[in-house]
Amino acid sequence: MDLKRQKRQYLFICLVYLFYYASYTSYFSFLTVYLKGWGYGTSDIGLIMTCNSLINLVSQPLLGQLSDTRFPIKRIVTVGMLVTIPGAFLLGPTAGFFPLALASILLVAFFDYSMIGLLDTWTNLAKADNPRINYSVARGMGSLSSAVAALVIGDALARFGNDKIFLFHALFMALALVFVLLFQGIPCAGRREKGQKAESMGQALRALFRNKKYRYYIIAVFLVNMGWRAILTYMPSILIDFGGNSRHQGIAMAMCTIGIAPFMFFYPRLLKRFGIERMIQVGYLLTALRVLSICLVRDLWMMVWIQLFESISFGIFQPSTIEYVSTIIPPKNRALAVTVGAAVQMALCGTVGNYFAGIFLEHFSFRWMFLIFGAVALAGFGLMRMSVKAPAEAQEPA
Fold first, then answer.
1. Domain that holds residue 84
2. SS3 sequence, 59-96?
3. Of 101, 138, 309, 365, which is least surrounded by CB within 10 A?
4. Collapsing DSSP states into helix, strand and coil, what is residue 391?
5. Do residues 119 and 318 make contact, with C-beta atoms less than 8 angstroms apart?
6. Which of 93-102, 170-179, 351-360 is the least confident region?
7. Structural domain count, the chain
8. Which CATH number characterizes residue 282's domain?
9. What is the mean pLDDT of residues 205-225?
């Protein structure tokens, strides 16, 4: 691949992240606000988010395994985007009937959430043919667009109504799809020769969990991110309880993401200076402290401004996680390894974290809830240190 094409392909994947995360923010960041406008209570929203997490616990590893062994990632991402563009509009006419509303949300979540791990894997593997690609910068473009989208959409919803989330979602996802079609495809790294039986999901998972570094890593992901998921789920409710509205939700989401891009842009220099083993530990420690920081909240604007801590923690946590997995897992299982990690981080942590958060909020204040989650997250940081210190295992060729 010549230099001009390398630069062009790098631009395409940056634009995929930019428009995908703007679309993701349009729908999922304002979904709670939309549902509250229809009279949904905290328990109803908690149930929806739990079901959301459960379906993604299945969808992410399933699509990751398929992209490793059967279908190129580009094809799976394309189909997923084509489904979610019209699928998001189904919530409008079904919002008044809970079962149908839930089904429409789960349809979007099945593919939309799964894009996160698939895009991360696609970008990571594409670097083998195009060394100009830098994951942290591309992902930083997504964070930047998410921040801008949160501000713009939060203000637009306050002016024109919450139902406009579907239009924003469709517009940005359609633009992301254009650049998905332009970005280079990659073959399935774990695909067998004709006549050979493909590796099953069970076989692939056993191979992953025989790796001690990966075992410790997955447990650390779970412990660190339960509280993080609870913040994202219950932040809109906490803001509303403090007297906020969709505009405050938009500002808070912007605070979460506005500083992520600079940290991700600067991340390659930090990685070169300190190495992946130090960076992954710093990222996990900062995420644990991010969870504990919610204990300090006393009013609406403090809840909004303290979300800036997300910029620092996630700006290091996310790129170091993808980089770390690529150093301990061979290419033939990498999509599954990344999507299992994403399923634990997004789905399992969302299910378990939201379940316990509901219990804590029923009997205690949100400050006590995040104090407990913060202590659990610090234990996860300890597990990540164990993963780093565990002996490395020889990687099989792709």
1. 9-181+204-389
2. HHHHHHHHHHHCCCHHHHHHHHHHHHHHHHHHHHHHCC
3. 365
4. coil
5. no
6. 351-360
7. 1
8. 1.20.1250.20
9. 93
